[in-house]
């Protein structure tokens, strides 16, 4: 475990910069489940508090933050619908950020991943794991109410359609959405830049507002993060 020279608040609430004595700077969240890792993150204790490094090579949200994303509506008490939660890597950091009064409705289709996600949620009570197909938001209407944020990280050709049906079903007016577009999951033969443009145009055609697009290159090849809002 590295000795830390200092910790600083990030400009986004409940995020931090860890600066090591060798000059390395890492993004981090305050661990709401002290002593336990969710993936391969480092745990670092400073002045009686434990921080988890937030790895941009493991999380597209962390990558977008490192690439100077401007929008960050995640805060204490936020309600989030997370599509494609996988084993809970990014979900767990969002869990740290929103605190015990927030909630993450974490939707995952893979039976193997949902088992890991359930294990994470057993110790992080602000995570509600949902084993369902995000293409059919009616499957979890009995659990999910209106949310502040819809976040999607799903490797499907119809990523924009999946986002739209969930946004229309659950995102409150003025709420934010995040879409990690994976060009190679949509069409391996087409220029990724064309795919990104087409997906954004599709979202706009549904009446959604695009606020920014962050290229995740250097952390994720042929990926962008699109951030927008419901009118």
Tally of helical segments: 6
What are the segments in which pLDDT stays under 50 over at least 5 consecutive residues?
none
- What is the general shape? globular
How are the strands of the biggest sheet laid out side by side?
8-7-6-9-10-12-11
- Biggest sheet layout: 7 strands, mixed
Radius of gyration: 17 Å
Q: How many separate domains? A: 2
Strand content: 25-35%
CATH topology of the largest domain: Rossmann fold
Helix percent reads 25-40%
CATH architecture of the largest domain: 3-Layer(aba) Sandwich
Q: Mean of the pLDDT scores?
A: 94
Would you give an account of this structure?
This protein is an alpha/beta fold. Helices cover 26% and strands 32% of the residues. It has two domains: 4-55, Phosphorylase Kinase, domain 1, CATH 3.30.200.20; 61-229, Vaccinia Virus protein VP39 (Rossmann fold, 3-Layer(aba) Sandwich), CATH 3.40.50. The chain has helices at 60-66, 89-98, 111-123, 159-170, 183-186, 192-205, and strands at 4-9, 16-20, 25-30, 43-46, 49-53, 79-83, 103-108, 127-131, 147-152, 171-182, 209-215, 223-229.
Keywords summarizing the entry:
alpha/beta, Phosphorylase Kinase, domain 1, 2 domains, 32% strand, 5-stranded antiparallel sheet, 231 residues, Rossmann fold
Strand-helix topology:
Layout: E1 4-9, E2 16-20, E3 25-30, E4 43-46, E5 49-53, H1 60-66, E6 79-83, H2 89-98, E7 103-108, H3 111-123, E8 127-131, E9 147-152, H4 159-170, E10 171-182, H5 183-186, H6 192-205, E11 209-215, E12 223-229
Parallel strand pairs: 6-7, 6-9, 7-8, 9-10
Antiparallel strand pairs: 1-2, 2-3, 3-5, 4-5, 10-12, 11-12
